[in-house]
């Protein structure tokens, strides 16, 4: 039951014969076959396929599995579950990445700075200080009745 | 009959009537749901819900009802308490009216759908969750409704589940809503730990609320109501069928975030930081969405961005500390936005699935009723005087102009208002007027009363609703009464400028040639590059690092390095170090032994 030992992934191929055998096992050409570097992370002889998501594969070709855009026997990427059509899309963007990032950050920073400026200089209806009658309530505020009250000018807005 | 009894009974009866299509098939052997029964149920519920609304309008009576209490801790009460106040009693009839029209429309739109009853069932469950959210008096019941609408949104957006784009859109909706839910749960936790309750009445007793729970509520509203930062799910949600877009993503679900802020507004009243944040976030959202809508070519996307922009406007109103006005805008917006979506659905089906406005034109002669209602809806959206949108939108702009607020927010909102006029006019020009660009054999048909009745009903609502609601509700705050003429007419002036801009641009497109791409056009049509920048970068790093942590790191460290291999390496290192110490000078060692023994013997 299950796959036989020679169909399962194996250790990192060291000799050219091992590489050829591994390429044959994964249904790849020897020229295309490139294993992950042997840095102890346990990839073994699994091929390092280009990091392209399924979005980039032809939507109109008659794949064996149309939802996965995959043919029977085709080697699957190590991170295939990240590259399906519900997840990360690596298809080339119309506008280069650095331009997108630059324009977006320009937009965002302009907005935030202008909001800051708008907070410093808010907009409001014209207001003036409260104006009271009777010489600014001079007597009511305890002013001396014998003295002349100070001149008060009232404005109309 | 006692008024309070009548009020409570009819409200609870509305909810009961809505849940009957769910309960009856479980209880009875022979009863089967069908689209007609569900539509009729919602219509009945609408008619019943008019009674509490009438009671409220005539007597101003509000009520809070507490039913069963979940006793799982003795000192923390979670009752099922329903608040029938101005907001819930006005929202029920509006939501039910709009839902009834949409369900009637959906009997035609989804007629070829094999699982149509399940579709109607899902819409009904969504409606129940939404009404629960509206009538909830404590945050627990609101959260139940909140999650319910989120789940139903996921199921309905991904209705055609074999379509990968629909699944991606549904996932986007769920994930962005979940990020917002973090905020809501944070606020609930804060509330439970400081006030020992989730009841809204008890939470409003404090005079000054700290900013943290308010930030949580604002985050929740950002997620659910698609404000800038958590907005991409709303345009993506157009992958769902048009009745779903009309019900969820225009009238009801997306206003849940704003509704939460309306319900909890007493907590916001004294905290100026939170209010300013709402204002600025709303202004940014409304402008960003309006900018994106100008260059879209899919009719549903234009209307989706229009919704996003109006939600930003509602958030701005919350930031002005005017929750009642925000609710007025929710109510009027529901009518014309649902109608716009239904009209677009009728157009799409009539053109056999064509959604690109560049392939429509001259439909005014071919689909008169639909396009007339489209025009009415667009005029209401732009805030044409005395249609529904005018009463809420113009009032918001007036209140903005006469308040003490952030200048940039004011300018952005005015700019967004003119952009609203621009993209609306553009849509109207390309869809209804001009030369026709549709294929020659199209199943154009609007003779079915299941199409025309809902649309005309909603058109009537779009015209009358503003007047009706403003005349029957007493405002809680004094609206600005006096202002200079320029301020009073600011909204209509910017709208007119927007229309002129659209007409100028369309003339330019026909007469002059412009380069296909420029930086501004690229920014607008790709929605500000927000989608690829965040979606690709965030998911790539998260998934990659997650896999490295979960599998590679675990395998490498715990199974190899921490155990055998590293141990062996350490052994090798110690062996190598000690080996260098071995110099192997046996004769010297023997000589030193002999010398030391002789010295010791001599010393004794």
From TrEMBL, chain A:
Annotated membrane topology is: Single-pass membrane protein
Q: Where are the transmembrane segments?
A: 104-124
Q: Give the subcellular location.
A: Mitochondrion inner membrane
Keyword Metal-binding included in the entry's annotation: no
Record flagged with keyword Transit peptide = yes
- What does the sequence similarity comment in the record state about its family? Belongs to the complex I NDUFB8 subunit family.
**What's this protein's name?**
NADH dehydrogenase [ubiquinone] 1 beta subcomplex subunit 8, mitochondrial
Protein species of origin:
Jacana jacana
From TrEMBL, chain B:
- UniProt domain NADH-Ubiquinone oxidoreductase (complex I) chain 5 N-terminal: residue ranges: 72-120
Q: Please provide, alphabetically and separated by semicolons, the GO molecular function terms listed in this UniProt record.
A: NADH dehydrogenase (ubiquinone) activity; NADH dehydrogenase activity
Q: Which InterPro entries match?
A: NADH_DH_su5_C, NADHpl_OxRdtase_5_subgr, ND/Mrp_TM, NU5C-like, Proton_antipo_N
Q: Which Pfam families match?
A: NADH5_C, Proton_antipo_M, Proton_antipo_N
Task: Name the catalysed reactions.
Answer: a ubiquinone + NADH + 5 H(+)(in) = a ubiquinol + NAD(+) + 4 H(+)(out)
E.C. no: 7.1.1.2
Q: Which domain of life is it from?
A: Eukaryota
Task: Provide the alphabetized UniProt keywords.
Answer: Electron transport, Membrane, Mitochondrion, Mitochondrion inner membrane, NAD, Respiratory chain, Translocase, Transmembrane, Transmembrane helix, Transport, Ubiquinone
- Enzyme class, UniProt record, top EC level: translocase
Q: Which GO terms describe its cellular component?
A: mitochondrial inner membrane
Q: Where are the transmembrane segments?
A: 6-24, 45-66, 86-107, 119-136, 142-162, 174-192, 212-230, 242-262, 274-295, 302-322, 334-352, 373-392, 404-423, 458-478, 490-512, 584-602
Query: Does Membrane appear among the keywords?
Result: yes
Q: How does it sit in the membrane?
A: Multi-pass membrane protein
Which compartment or compartments is the protein found in? Mitochondrion inner membrane
Q: Does the keyword Electron transport apply?
A: yes
Q: Which GO terms describe its biological process?
A: ATP synthesis coupled electron transport; electron transport coupled proton transport
Q: Which residues form the NADH dehydrogenase subunit 5 C-terminal domain?
A: 423-602
Show where the NADH:quinone oxidoreductase/Mrp antiporter transmembrane domain sits: 136-416
Name the principal localization, coarsely classed. Answer: mitochondrion
Family classification: Belongs to the complex I subunit 5 family.
Physiological role: Core subunit of the mitochondrial membrane respiratory chain NADH dehydrogenase (Complex I) which catalyzes electron transfer from NADH through the respiratory chain, using ubiquinone as an electron acceptor. Essential for the catalytic activity and assembly of complex I.
Annotated protein name in UniProt: NADH-ubiquinone oxidoreductase chain 5
Q: What is the lineage of its organism?
A: Eukaryota, Metazoa, Chordata, Craniata, Vertebrata
**Name of the gene:** ND5
